[in-house]
Amino acid sequence: MLKALSKLNPEARVVTLAACGLVVLLTACGGGGGGGGGGDSGTNAPPRPAAGLSDPSLTLQQNQPTAISLAQEMVLTYQLSDEAAAAQQLVEMAPGVLDASTSPYACPGGSGTITFATNGAGFNYTYNACANAGYAFTGSSVISPTVVSSTVTEYDLDFSNVTVTGTNAPNTALTGSSVCTPGTSSVSCITTLGGYVWGNDASYSAGLANGSHQCDCGNGTWNVLFDDFGATSGAAYVYASNGEASVTRLSANTFRVVLTVNGVTTTYDVTTT
């Protein structure tokens, strides 16, 4: 896994701010929030992953409110990452569309079924404790394929109130939609869930999130790569149109945010309470 950023010695300047209903203590180092910099080695962000997400459009600002917003957004999306990972395993199952299966379909995890009935060019699915990749799904969805020259080139799957059990299962039902593209050996699905778009690499295990998502946070979209991001540790890398950022979680409510905007890098320590 990617290495967390090394710690920097902050300047003795602490600003108390309120943002999004949270009290935030923030320390800027490497030149402060005004855009001055130096002394940093950059975000150490890996290349932006090819996870099926569109290019980011957001223009990052080199200031303290941006650093605060990034830390808060990582917390919010982390809380949805277990749902996104479970949904990924749900939507990759497309019996009768990707193959010639008939109802009831025996689920790949060795137990449970999917029963389905024709709905236009697609099907209404009913999941009956359907096991796949360590999860078991119960609920319903609608799948609508796009067929070109007798070949399924894409399918949309809308799911609502699908309950999930399993070791890494979320404690809430899944509602969202996916667009999936069949490949030679696997299916690539982009899922909209909880107000975010999740890449085809989204995963969650033992409390740690990995993979990509996209946020439309009001001023454009940014893309995020989680690297073992958890409740008290890990990193997230944010990609925008004019730079990038890393958000390293040092504890439950402390973060180091390294912003590189138009080639200038500044580090902020953020504490949310």
Task: Write up what this structure looks like.
It is a single chain. The chain has helices spanning 64-78, 81-91; strands at residues 14-19, 22-29, 105-106, 113-119, 122-132, 135-148, 151-166, 174-182, 187-193, 196-198, 203-205, 208-216, 221-229, 235-239, 243-249, 254-261, 264-272. It is mostly beta strands and 273 residues long. It folds into two domains: 24-80 and 205-272, no CATH class; 84-193, no CATH class.
Question: SSE layout and pairings?
Answer:
Elements: E1 14-19, E2 22-29, H1 64-78, H2 81-91, E3 105-106, E4 113-119, E5 122-132, E6 135-148, E7 151-166, E8 174-182, E9 187-193, E10 196-198, E11 203-205, E12 208-216, E13 221-229, E14 235-239, E15 243-249, E16 254-261, E17 264-272
Antiparallel strand pairs: 1-2, 2-17, 3-4, 4-5, 5-6, 6-7, 7-8, 8-9, 9-10, 10-12, 11-12, 12-13, 13-14, 14-15, 15-16, 16-17
In short, what is this structure?
With 273 residues, this protein is mainly β. 10% of the residues lie in helices and 49% in strands. The protein folds into two domains: 24-80 and 205-272, no CATH class; 84-193, no CATH class.
> Which residues sit in consecutive blocks of at least 5 with pLDDT less than 50?
1-41
- What is the radius of gyration? 21 Å
Globular, elongated, flat, extended or rod-shaped: what is the shape?
A: elongated
Q: Report the span from N to C terminus.
A: 29 Å
β-sheet strand percentage: over 45%
Q: How many discrete structural domains?
A: 2
Give me the number of helical elements.
Answer: 2
Structural class estimated from helices and strands: mainly beta
Largest sheet: 17 strands, antiparallel
Order of helices and strands: EEHHEEEEEEEEEEEEEEE
Let me know the number of strands: 17
Mean pLDDT: 86
Helix content: under 10%
